[in-house]
């Protein structure tokens, strides 16, 4: 894919990314947004291919996301889940009744031989989404969490165990063999600005960076690469980012976030409450942009998106 006009590329995964995109579509035309989405969270439940990050992003762009829970569809019911318990099948992963249609369709398209990229394109078109949503790879990549009690898939760790176990390490099974698609690499290389959403650096962005070709594309792109910190102080805005960063040897702070991306990052956006960290981050040759990064509602998400676009459009190469 070679874009014919300027576009903006967002690396995305999880609820923080969905919130940010809710603001970004108010600032720039949706059709100019490319979203490269993590597939490390993908799993199989009841024989169905589940892509939690892709679904959160697409539901958000389609304005169907349950923004209170941060996942799944609005006005969801769970009658199938209630019934399936009696057969002894796992019910810890809460698949909603309407949500099942997404997983059934995705699984069917993949069985017909479509790639995940082709499947997502077909489904986003059906939902009326104008943004280009691109899985980071069509190859299987799965995030594995090593705990003292054994290795867990990410959904087992995050949902079933509610991210309580102590983490010893994080690995990305399949990543060394996986390849980023041409569409993903072209999107990064030809972008006006590349934005790393306020997503977990270890389990949302990390699996993408481990895929062959993707990190090199970020190093070589002519665009500036800007990351929005998912941390304020030493705490994640939501989820287990702080716990996982510590387990992987990173300082739990916006400085640690910048360190995760140090080899390709041009600028990092941190919260006003962390302004004192700016000098130490700049010392590492990464620019710092300071604003309120909390996205309590759509207006706050729009303000953050506008800040990121305005600050980086003036210096984009």
Tell me the layout of helices and strands.
Layout (H helix, E strand, L loop, with lengths): L7 E5 L1 H11 L8 E5 L5 E3 L2 E3 L1 H10 L17 H6 L12 H15 L4 H11 L5 E4 L6 E6 L2 E4 H7 L6 E7 L8 H8 L3 E4 L4 H9 L4 H7 L3 E5 L2 E2 L2 E2 L4 H7 L6 H7 L6 E5 L6 H5 L4 E5 L6 H16 L4
Parallel strand pairs: 1-2, 1-9, 2-5, 9-10, 10-13, 13-14
Antiparallel strand pairs: 3-4, 6-7, 6-8, 11-12
Helix pairs in contact: 1-2, 1-13, 4-5, 7-9
| Uncertain ranges | none
The CATH homologous superfamily name equals CofD-like domains
Count of structural domains:
1
The SS-based structural class is alpha/beta
Q: What does this protein look like?
A:
- By secondary structure, the chain is of the alpha/beta class.
- Helices cover 38% and strands 19% of the residues.
- It has 13 helices and 14 strands.
- The chain has helices at 14-24, 52-61, 79-84, 97-111, 116-126, 154-160, 182-189, 201-209, 214-220, 241-247, 254-260, 278-282, 298-313, and strands spanning 8-12, 33-37, 43-45, 48-50, 132-135, 142-147, 150-153, 167-173, 193-196, 224-228, 231-232, 235-236, 267-271, 287-291.
- α4 crosses α5 and α7 (182-189) runs parallel beside α9.
- It is globular and about 60 Å long.
